Amino acid sequence: MRMVKEILGQSVVVEAFCFEASRRLCHTRQNNNKKHKISMFPSFSCSSILLPIVKRRTTFDDLISSNKSLHDGGGVTLTISASVAIKNSKEFMAMMLHYFDSFSHNTTGDRGIVMQLVSTQIDPTTMEGKLSKRAVLDWTRELLFNGGGDSERSTHKVEFEIDSNFGFPGAITVTNKYDKEIFLETISIEGGFVEFSCNSWVQPEKVHPDKRIFFTNKACLPCDTAEGVKELRKEELRQKRGDGNGMRKVMSDRVYDYDVYNDLGNLDKGIQHVRPILGTKQHPNPRRCRTGRPPVITNEKYESCVNAFMETYVPRDEVFEGVRKEALDVERVKGVTRNLIPFIRTYITKCGVFKELSEIKNIYKRRHQVDAMNHTNEENGTLSIDVNKLFQDSFEEYFKFSTPHIISGNGGCCITDEELGRQALAGVNPLSIKRLQTFPPVSDLDPSMYGPQESALKEEHIISHLDGMSVQQAIEEKKLFILDYHDAYMPFLKGINAQEDRKAYATRTILYLTRMGTLKPIAIELSLPEGEHQQQQSKQVLTPPLDATSYWLWQLAKAHVCSNDAGVHQLVHHWLRTHACMEPFIIAAHRQMSVTHPIFKLLKPHMKYTLQINALAREALINGGGIIESDFSTGRYSTEIISAAYKDWWRFDMEALPADLIR
């Protein structure tokens, strides 16, 4: 195969090959039509003469034309072979075993995978693309080859009958007449001259009567689409757009449609479980993939939540498969087991919050567990091991989380100044830090609602940490940076702090670029809405400590900075910008661009599985009572922070480089 491709596609000096017009003739049927079986590859014999090869690639039309001259007369039918690669899913193999078992008892059933090639040329009688005769992939007669013993996939041979003037294949239609879905990987015409990279689930005909359409791997714009497959290109988009009605079938439909986020709460459980609908004028938000689930009983504007008997719909080809699914299942088991003991403890004590800093570190595994198990006998100096204690502690350690590297060597539970500065640029959220350009910082919020726009930070708070420079000089030399979460949190602080076991400030942190090239926090501002706590100032500034009291105040201030940072990272930079804002683009790409579109081919690898990830997030991450509401200080106001960031901050033209870095 490699040799032939080299000959047909490259101009090099190689050993000359003498062409032998070796064609295999099949027995003709008992009618007047002539039927011939051809091999897409001519055979070659090697000679010792060295000749240059003419630079011309043999095409599908050339191979057909080279055989036409041997068959005079009308009604010539040519047979070409193709290989079909199918993934052997567990469900499909179970169905095949059942089918083989029942075949001897029932041979009249219409089973198999029916395929039909579609030419790029128009049939003048039908004014549609020319069609080959139907080819049926029959499992009871097909001989597996080239991987038939592979447990993951099997390759099968099928033959298509086409007229001699068929032209070049542009598409292929597939109908699944089995009872179970199949995953069709590739269809390759003999020799690889025509390739169909399908990589898609094909549903049974009784579930989806429409024929599945697959196009060749050649990319083309709509204006360059061959006449024979133009209507198929439109039909493929029609199938993926749907009609916007009805409940989508989980694990079978492949419809991409839009909807608002009206499934994050559960109104049927009570008013405290209501969450705002995201995607309205009041709460702007990107659209999500429509599922069509029925509305809740008490208000038809809200969609019912998923439950143990119902999964969230995503188009079939977006569902996790293979290694990705296995990895998700493993992590899901880890998550359940590691949260088991904390859940039981919370259920018994009715308290799910940390009361002491040491309790935070107890959720992680101990690094020197073996040393803790060993005990030296003082009398004879021998080493003994308490087996019972070893078993008990090993059991407890299994349910704990791995210790993060940033605290693995730290005996305390608090983050150091150097580590806070490092994580601002090299941690999980390097997107919030900005170069300080105005001092003191100024808010963009309405002062009539949220108090004065000016910050409480003053020059005397930071001047002693600038190595002899003035504030203006440090700004001009690009030495000062800021983590500013004031505007992101301030509008929601009254609601956040009204929740049980929640306390939050809106923070601003000034960082200084030291002579060693590291970032160091030199001032932290904590802000509250005016009037929330009359006994406290609405804004207070903390600086690096000088005594034990100021040390702990500084540690608590850094904790609030980390809390703000985690919330903005997860809600805005991660969920909103990375996942939620991508979903409508993915839906639009599938609805408006054919799989043959060059841009779609570029986007497809980056869009894979995003809809499934987002669906799982709506089930357990950002939903009412989900992980973020339970574990983040923002609580039930998390979705409102997402909506506010999308309304006031997100801009499509600012998401690409270099605009995003400049911002």
- How large, in whole angstroms, is the Cα Rg? 34 Å
Shape: elongated
The N- to C-terminal Cα distance equals 53 Å
Number of strands: 21
Helix percent reads 25-40%
Beta-strand fraction estimate: 15-25%
Helix-strand blueprint:
Blueprint: H1 2-9, E1 13-20, E2 34-37, E3 43-52, H2 60-68, E4 76-87, H3 90-103, E5 113-123, E6 128-131, E7 135-137, E8 153-163, E9 169-176, E10 182-189, E11 195-202, E12 212-215, H4 230-241, E13 258-259, E14 288-289, H5 322-338, H6 340-349, H7 357-361, H8 369-373, E15 374-376, E16 383-385, H9 387-398, H10 405-408, H11 417-426, E17 434-435, H12 447-450, H13 459-462, H14 471-476, E18 480-484, H15 486-489, H16 493-497, E19 506-513, E20 519-527, E21 539-542, H17 548-580, H18 582-592, H19 598-607, H20 610-620, H21 627-631, H22 638-648, H23 659-662
Parallel strand pairs: 2-4
Antiparallel strand pairs: 1-3, 4-8, 4-10, 5-6, 5-7, 5-9, 9-12, 10-11, 13-14, 15-16, 17-18, 18-19, 19-20, 20-21
